[in-house]
Amino acid sequence: xxxxxxxxxxxLHFKYERAMAQQALHRSTFYDRVxxxxxxxxxxxxxxxxxxxxxxxxxxxxxxxxxxxPDGGDGGFQCFTTLQAGIAFxxxxxxxxxxQYHLDPDPKSRFAPTQWHRGQPYLVVANDGTTGAPVxxxxxxxxx
Length: 144
Known about the structure:
Oligomer: single chain
Largest sheet: 5 strands, antiparallel
Helix content: 25-40%
C-alpha cells in the first residue's frame, strides 16, 4: 500500500508542477503582450510604482485596476503599465470611483506580484477624471 501512496503523491506533485509551469507561461505571455501594447502611451499621470524595499521607481509593472462598485462588488477592470520613473499614464478613460489595484511586475524580475489589501490606499478617480497619482509599493520576492 505504501508504494501506491508514494506513486499517487509523486503523480499529484508532477501534475501540480506542470500546472504551475503552464500558469507561469500564460503570465509571461500576458505580461509581454501588455508591455508591448503600452510601450508608448501618453496621458496624465495615474500612479507611481516604487520598490517596497528601496523606494526606487520601477518601470515595466502592469497595474491592474478593478472598480469597486457602490455595493462593494467588482465594477470592471483596466490595466496600465509603468514606464520610465515608475509612472503609469492614464491613456484610457476611467469611470469615477475607487479602484483596488494589483501590481504585476516582469516575471523574470526580483519583484513579486502585489495585491491591494486593507490599509492600502484605493486609486480614486474624481468626477472630472483626475487622480491623485498615488505611490504604490511593489513587493520583492522572498529568496528560496
